[in-house]
Structure formats: structure tokens, C-alpha cells
UniProtKB/TrEMBL annotation:
DNA-binding region extent: 36-55
Domain HTH tetR-type: 13-73
Keyword annotations: DNA-binding, Transcription, Transcription regulation
Organism: Occultella gossypii
Protein name: Helix-turn-helix transcriptional regulator
Pfam families per record: TetR_N (PF00440)
Keyword Lyase: no
Record-linked InterPro entries: Homeodomain-like_sf (IPR009057), HTH-type_TetR-like_transc_reg (IPR050109), HTH_TetR (IPR001647)
Length: 236
């Protein structure tokens, strides 16, 4: 049975998706300012014109990658704070653990570059502000699922606090501070939702606090699914 031809909209969406995947890797490896749109298009299997047919430019493409990352992070309503994962467990993925970690850190650094650029541009600042609102709403969903009924703070307040702690810990880590590791971050997020002593373990001691472990797991999965290395061909 013959497969129905893809519609123009489906083809355009597939092109956009491929460009976003390629851009995520390029921004992570080369930074926001260092990434080249022609190279991104070529890595995705298109000409540079495909970028401008789907995005207004580099900033618009970067915002699309942020949108994709937020969607991955808070899919299916988020996660349960305190979940602990072996981020790169299992077979072939384990050998790529360090590379994926570097890509996660690299994109976080590129995001800092973009935020500094957007802060000086009214349109980009407004667009970035919209994403920050969506980000906090994602943490609010997590808070609503995990908060104590006796907590005097509302889910939106707890969500903002979770966002501040998780994103702030990542900023400290990127700045070279080891004051908060993955264990301390996990316990801190749980204390926001359930004040008082929480069950402790040594899991995550010394690991960079680059986002809650469950969130890093999701980012790692998205990167592994879309990134195969600069010299590897992409499937079409």
C-alpha cells in the first residue's frame, strides 16, 4: 500500500524540526555568537535559504531551540522532584555520557550569551520573557503535583522558587562554583515542597548542579535522539 504524500505543512515542519536539532548541537558546541547558520543548515541537510524560509534569523532559531527544550523538560506534566536517575545508564549511551553532559553545559552557556544579547533588544527581551513565563509555569506544574496540602505558599509561588533554585544552581555551576552539587540541589528542591528533614543519600555528591537530575535526564534523551556527532550523517 502506497504511503500518502506528505503535505506542504508536514514537509515544512519536518524541515524546521531538523534545523532545530542541528542548531541545538551547533549552539552547544560553538556558542550563540559562534554558531554559523550556513553550517547549521548544511548539517541538517539543507541550504542556508531553508533557515530564512522558516526563521527570521539566528535569534528566532535559538528561541525555537529553547521552545523545544522546554517542551522536552515539561512533557507529560513535568516530573516528581527527588527522582534520581543514572543519567547515562545502559549500553551504548553510557559511552557517550561525557559528550552529552558537555553538550548540555554548552547549550546552557549559549543561553547565557543569548540572554545578554536579548536584554539589549526590546523585541528579543519580550520574547525571552514569554519563555521565562512558560518555564516558571512548568515548575509550577511540578510544584502542584508534589506540594504539601498544608503549605502556605501557592503552587505558582512554589514553582517560582523551584525555578529560581534550579536555574540559579545551574548558573553557579556554569560560573565555576561547586557550592551546590546534585545532591544538595535535589534535597533543596524537596525542602521547598515539603519543609523539614527529607530522606538523604550520597547520590549526586560532587556532580555539577546543572539542573535537577530528572530534568538533565530529559535533556540528555533529546540530545541523544537528535545528535550523532559532527561527522555522522543524519537520517532523513
Amino acid at each position: 500500500m502506497a504511503t500518502a504524500p506528505r503535505s506542504r505543512r508536514e514537509q515544512q515542519q519536518q524541515t524546521r524540526d531538523a534545523l532545530v536539532v542541528a542548531a541545538r548541537g551547533a549552539f552547544a558546541e560553538q556558542g550563540y555568537h559562534g554558531a554559523n547558520l550556513e553550517a547549521i543548515a548544511r548539517d541538517a541537510g539543507f541550504s542556508k535559504g531553508a533557515v530564512y524560509s522558516n526563521f527570521d534569523g539566528k535569534a528566532d532559531l535559538f528561541l525555537a531551540v529553547i521552545d523545544a527544550n522546554i517542551e522536552v523538560a515539561f512533557a507529560e506534566g513535568g516530573w516528581t522532584v527527588g527522582e534520581h536517575h543514572q543519567v547515562f545508564e545502559g549500553g551504548a549511551d553510557e559511552s557517550h555520557g561525557e559528550e552529552v553532559s558537555e553538550l548540555i553545559e554548552g547549550f546552557a552557556l549559549a543561553t547565557l550569551e543569548f540572554i545578554a544579547t536579548a536584554a539589549r533588544d526590546a523585541r528579543l527581551s519580550e520574547e525571552m520573557g514569554k519563555r521565562m513565563t512558560i518555564l516558571v509555569e512548568g515548575y509550577t506544574t511540578v510544584a502542584a503535583q508534589s506540594r504539601s496540602e498544608r503549605d502556605p505558599l501557592q503552587p505558582n509561588e512554589l514553582g517560582a522558587l523551584l525555578a529560581a533554585l534550579d536555574e540559579g544552581a545551574a548558573l553557579l555551576s556554569l560560573g565555576g562554583s561547586h557550592a551546590i552539587d546534585q545532591r544538595a540541589l535535589r534535597i533543596g528542591m524537596r525542602r521547598i515542597l515539603t519543609p523539614g528533614p527529607v530522606e538523604d543519600s550520597t547520590a549526586g555528591v560532587g556532580e555539577p548542579a546543572l539542573h535537577d537530575d530528572a530534568l538533565r535526564q530529559r535533556f540528555a534523551g533529546a540530545i541523544r535522539a537528535g545528535y550523532t556527532g559532527p561527522d555522522a550523517p543524519r537520517e532523513r
